[in-house]
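ok here's Extracellular membrane protein CFEM domain-containing protein:
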Amino acid sequence: MFRFHLLLLFFGALFSLAAATSAPIFCKCTCFKNSTLIQLGPQSSCAQCTHAYCLSQDLPICKDASAARADVLSTCIQRDSRKDQIIVWAFILGTAGLLAWAAAKRVHELREGKKRNAAAMSLNRGPYAQLSATTN
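and the structure:
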């Protein structure tokens, strides 16, 4: 029962951490089929990511672009959110934990088998010898 509560506490903390952090927001500026990402500040929103914003950044890929034509495309995206990172790390740690558990279980089984074989040898029997019938 204690493990269940501990696991519940762990996942609750993981969930609150994932919900509390915000993902960085980027403005993807595409000029003439070439793109670049510009990170927006923490107080900025996606409304700031416009054609005019991309042109005001004086990007080398937008050198000959004009706002009047369809040379500039702007897209607001989120990348590398904390929630995604937490999910990936939880999966990696969970998988590593399961592999470690399987390895530890196998080592334990091998040690127990050696102990049984040693006990059988001390009784002058082979590891798989038939038990002799005892007569009363």
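+1. The helical segments are 2-20, 51-56, 82-122.
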